[in-house]
Known about the structure:
The complex is a heterodimer of chains A (168) and B (185). With 168 residues, chain A is mainly alpha-helical. Chain A folds into 2 domains: 1-59, no CATH class; 60-168, no CATH class. Chain A has 8 helices and no strands. Chain A has helices at residues 4-19, 24-59, 61-76, 83-88, 93-107, 112-122, 127-138, 146-167. The longest helix of chain A is centred in the N-terminal third of the chain and has 36 residues, at 24-59. Chain A is globular, with a radius of gyration of 19 Å. Helices cover 83% and strands 0% of the residues of chain B. Chain B is globular, with a radius of gyration of 21 Å. Chain B contains 8 helices and no strands. Chain B has 185 residues and is mostly helical. Chain B has one domain (50-184). In chain B, helix 2 (22-59) packs across helix 7, helix 4 runs antiparallel to helix 5 (103-120) and helix 6 (122-133) packs antiparallel against helix 8.
Amino acid sequence: MLSLIPAALLAGLCLYGLFRGVEVYTVLTDGAAKGLQLIGKLLPGMVVLFSGIWLLRASGLPEALNAWIAPLLGTLGIPPETGLLLLIRPLSGSAAMAAASELMAKSGVDSYVGRCAAVMLGSSETTFYVLGLYYGAAGKKPARWVIPAALCADLACFVSSAWLCRVL
Amino acid sequence: MNAVLITLFVISTCWAVFTGHIPESGAAVMEGAEEAVRLCINISGAICLWSAAMELMERCGLSERLSSLLQPLLGRLFPESCRSKDARQALSENVSANLLGLGSAATPSGLRAARAMAACCPQELGLLVVMNTASLQLLPTTIASLRAGMGAASPFDILPAVWLSSLVSQAAGLGTAALLRRCSR
Lengths: 168, 185
């Protein structure tokens, strides 16, 4: 059923576009060109951060840290392999993408850990980047409760992702 | 960003030296860079396709439709800032663009709302930021593209889990915000 979503969505959008009098083909190719630009913008950062994440993995530090945080993650029901992803997710989107794709490559994209990584990544945002962006634009400092609430949301997201991937 | 990257490289290198993982780490830096390019190529087709779909959503006016549907709900969450028409509009544009996954449209309207709120109601600005730091996306196309690029059998089958998890995260964020606000008053 879910595999129908991409095709049905595209077909529906095309019909809706036709109905609204939009040049569907031209708009789609414009959008695809923007996607290409996005990749071009993403690539340099990804090269640098993937390199860093791979180095971190090879150094053996995550395993050493995991021994510390695994019991804590275990009580929350979060697979310990995703520890690095969780730590890095609020700080950098590209680094989180690197950590997630490393997990998917190693554990298998359709394995429990691989799916877990995808759901965690898909249902959270780069918290500190968003905080900086919005408060920078507003020219103010966040009220005291803002950062704890944002981090609480992240934690809830990780715990529920781990649980949902197990039951769904 | 700078700090993350520098910490990553310096700490990993030091740790690799201390624990004797030197040869692997030399290979790893280049493998990582290679993997980044391979992944970018693997996912670029899907990213372009979804970017095209997003463009169509935007030009069809789907975002505006959704944004007018959302206004009553947002009026409840942000009673003070919704008194000003500007802020209300920017706010609903931000939320609808977020829901549809139109990141490029979500940020400008979000920042416009943030500027409007900063003056009159900093409390509601906090709420808006918490909402934006927790995800709102209905179609996580980047993740689906990543999964497709990695060879997943059905890249979109994570959708229900992503939706529920986003909901939980939003509820936790807004709930904690409400609780802490009451405590700090």
